[in-house]
Amino acid sequence: MVEYRIDRRTGVATYLQIVQQTKQAMRLGLLEPGDKLPTAREVVEATAINPNTVLKAYRELEREGLVEARRGLGTFVRKSLGAAPADSPFGAELGDWAVRAREAGLERDDVAALFTSVLDTYFKGEQG
């Protein structure tokens, strides 16, 4: 099950953080077709956000065809995204790289900016 982490300092709308984290979990194979998303109540208890925010995120995921709400049962993943399992060797390589970047004095935002720049260079014209 996915555990949402809400960062109020990012400027990214809370519901979008839930959408993004759900998609990331799907890409990493942490959420697979048929898996149930946490209930709005469970997310609210874990994150102290408004239940309507959770429902808005789930509606957005449903609009994109990624999940489906089943009345009285919950919200379930409909399909998978990507092909980057959490245990991919690329993850270990990125972890090693992140350690080196941190040891070199880079902060999280610096690493994120650098990584995004590299992605933009090598994946021109592709949307995530």
From TrEMBL:
Residue ranges annotated for the HTH gntR-type domain, each copy included: 12-80
Keywords: DNA-binding, Transcription, Transcription regulation
PROSITE patterns listed in its UniProt record: HTH_GNTR (PS50949)
CDD domains, sorted: WHTH_GntR
InterPro entries reported for this sequence: Tscrpt_reg_HTH_GntR, WH-like_DNA-bd_sf, WH_DNA-bd_sf
Keyword Transcription: yes
Molecular-function GO term, any one: DNA binding
Parts of the chain that traverse the membrane: none
Protein name listed in UniProt: GntR family transcriptional regulator
Source species: Streptomyces lacrimifluminis
